[in-house]
Design a protein that fits this description.
The longest helix is centred in the N-terminal third of the chain and has 16 residues. The chain has seven helices and eight strands. The termini are far apart. It has a single domain, classed as Nuclear Transport Factor 2, Chain: A (Roll), CATH 3.10.450. A six-stranded mixed beta sheet has the order 2-1-8-7-4-3. The chain has a two-stranded antiparallel ribbon with strand order 5-6. By secondary structure, the chain is of the alpha+beta class. It is elongated, with a radius of gyration of 17 Å.
Length: about 210
């Protein structure tokens, strides 16, 4: 599903308006606090649902509501509609986001920090949703994270300067909702593909030599 169609959908379902939302770097303690906000999500119409890459279109009203909050999370995480405060508000008070591949978990303000950090590296970050499955309170998404490497990336070896390289990274997201908000978000990112596309070569020879 290309960006114009699903972007148009989430824009209409989000009153104020996603993995990956972060990269494998340590979370910041806090970013500038976004204003507190509470927004509802309009029901998706039959026409809007028809434009989404759903694996099953026979959804209950509750499943459609759960899908709406997830689509809003993706929308506010986009480079051209970035809203860290809106992303935080899509979660329950004790909601968590886990980058399963990097082994990092984010809560509270750190949820919004992940968006800011990602956008600082890929200002035009976009998530191309390829397949969406809704099963009760769980929304599973196959997607590709796309963008242009235009910001510096801090690494343990030093700062990786931007090259303008394009990324198109296979990703799987699993959203667990409760009461119309996101309780838990697990994201699996193809970091090996992402770093390769950014021009980072894995030093296999160095690893072998150390052995």
């Amino acid at each position: 599903m290309k960006s114009p169609s699903w972007k148009a959908i989430v824009a209409t379902t989000a009153v104020a308006g996603l993995g990956v939302l972060a990269v494998a770097t340590a979370p910041t303690q806090a970013a500038a606090s976004a204003p507190e906000r509470h927004h509802a999500h309009a029901a998706l119409s039959t026409a809007q649902l028809a434009k989404l890459p759903l694996t099953d279109r026979d959804l209950t009203k509750k499943e459609i509501a759960n899908l709406a909050v997830v689509l809003d999370a993706y929308h506010v995480a986009e480079g051209d509609s970035l809203d860290p405060g809106g992303f935080i508000d899509d979660f329950t008070e004790d909601g968590v986001f886990t980058d399963e591949v990097a082994g990092q978990t984010y809560r509270g303000q750190a949820l919004g920090d992940t968006l800011t950090r990602m956008a600082s590296i890929f200002p035009d970050v976009h998530r191309d949703l390829k397949s969406i499955t809704v099963n009760g309170d769980v929304v599973s998404v196959e997607l590709a994270i796309q963008g242009t490497f235009e910001g510096p990336l801090p690494t343990p070896a030093g700062t990786l300067e931007p090259t303008g390289a394009k990324i198109d990274v296979p990703t799987a997201d699993f959203w667990y909702t409760k009461g119309g908000k996101i309780k838990k978000f697990d994201c699996y990112v193809g970091y090996t593909a992402m770093y390769s596309q950014m021009g980072v070569d894995l030093d296999w020879a160095g690893a072998v030599d150390k052995g």
